[in-house]
User: Which sequence fits this backbone?
């Protein structure tokens, strides 16, 4: 397996390939909150270990109410799942779209799931010359009566670019005219500086051709817990999606954690302050390097383009992993190539190490 095929969570594969103990790798590729799992969640699980002895509430009422209070969505519109990936798969299987548009580059799972249902896909490119910002009018011209679904990650992975809620409203109106749905993956929305201007969650109260997918793996630093949730006010679609899901796909610990993490305002505030501060500092430092172009981001990661042909993203990956630093070579993403690298924001001292190594590699 080449490094371009390795996902941020595949530390075991990297560990085996490069003979580096997993715990010694500093992972700038996983996009996970460097603060780790909230202490309130650790305490809740430790104090309720016997929760695993009982089945979770099959309706997950308390968990859905907790998510509703956190997001502002209606509790009845929420469906929970075994990570956001299960919900992406479930909704796509439910819709079985024949003609989809995926705003790209993007997470490969969208395309995989649509292809598994036999649907056709058009990848709509975010253009480098537009700094990977969505050109809404150009996208709308691609939508017609054959379109079933548009898929958008907001903020986008791997570019970090985003679309405001006002512009999403415009897109939803266009899709409604063609009886098409919009799926918005908001995995990284909680890292945005102004969530209220970016998140589509309030629009679920107005539009029934919208469903939003979120996870807890990144912001709440618990990818192994597998807790995701969605919001959709189309009751027919949501109930059919629920029928596709396994009844207890969210385990008792994940259910318990979800009832705690969304109320941990101190952790949420601390995370946003850390990411916002480091995002500005890293941007300032890396913008000084003439050999790269750094793109604006509203997430907890950066994408940059190499402006030199003297070295490739793959070669930088190899030089960094030799020092036990793992970044993402983005050449496997659609519309990107061997000039692009993505890395996530960690603690200040870890960010300093990566910045120093990038400078050393490029300025030699």
Assistant:
């Amino acid at each position: 397996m080449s490094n371009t095929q390795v996902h941020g969570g595949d530390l075991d594969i990297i560990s085996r390939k490069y003979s580096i103990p997993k715990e010694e790798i500093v992972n700038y590729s996983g996009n996970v909150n460097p603060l780790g799992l909230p202490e309130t969640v650790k305490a809740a699980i430790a104090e309720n270990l016997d929760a695993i002895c009982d089945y979770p509430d099959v309706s997950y009422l308390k968990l859905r109410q907790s998510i509703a209070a956190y997001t502002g969505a209606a509790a009845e519109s929420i469906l929970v799942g075994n990570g956001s990936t299960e919900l992406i798969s479930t909704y796509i299987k439910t819709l079985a779209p024949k003609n989809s548009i995926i705003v790209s580059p993007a997470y490969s799972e969208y395309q995989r799931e649509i292809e598994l249902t036999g649907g056709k896909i058009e990848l709509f490119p975010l253009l480098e010359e537009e700094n990977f910002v969505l050109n809404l009018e150009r996208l709308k011209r691609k939508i017609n009566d054959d379109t079933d679904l548009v898929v958008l990650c907001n903020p986008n992975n791997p570019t970090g670019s985003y679309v405001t809620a006002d512009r999403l409203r415009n897109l939803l109106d266009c899709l409604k005219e063609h009886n098409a749905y919009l799926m918005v993956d908001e995995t990284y929305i909680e890292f945005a500086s102004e969530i209220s201007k970016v998140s589509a969650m309030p629009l679920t109260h107005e539009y029934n051709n919208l469903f939003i997918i979120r996870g807890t793996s990144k912001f709440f630093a618990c990818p192994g817990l597998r807790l995701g949730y969605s919001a959709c006010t189309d009751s027919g679609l949501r109930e059919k999606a629920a029928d596709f899901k396994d009844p207890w796909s969210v385990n008792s610990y994940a259910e318990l954690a979800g009832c705690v993490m969304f109320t941990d305002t101190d952790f949420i505030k601390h995370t946003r302050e850390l990411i916002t501060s480091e995002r500005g500092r890293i941007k300032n430092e890396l913008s000084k390097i003439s050999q790269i172009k750094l793109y604006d981001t509203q997430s907890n990661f950066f994408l940059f383009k190499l402006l030199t042909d003297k070295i490739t993203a793959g070669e930088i990956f190899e030089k960094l992993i030799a020092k036990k630093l793992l970044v993402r070579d983005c050449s496997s993403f659609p519309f990107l190539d061997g000039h692009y690298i993505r890395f996530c924001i960690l603690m200040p001292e870890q960010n300093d190490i990566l910045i120093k190594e990038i400078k050393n590699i490029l300025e030699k």
The first strand starts at residue 26 and ends at 27. Residues 1-5 have pLDDT under 50 and may be disordered.
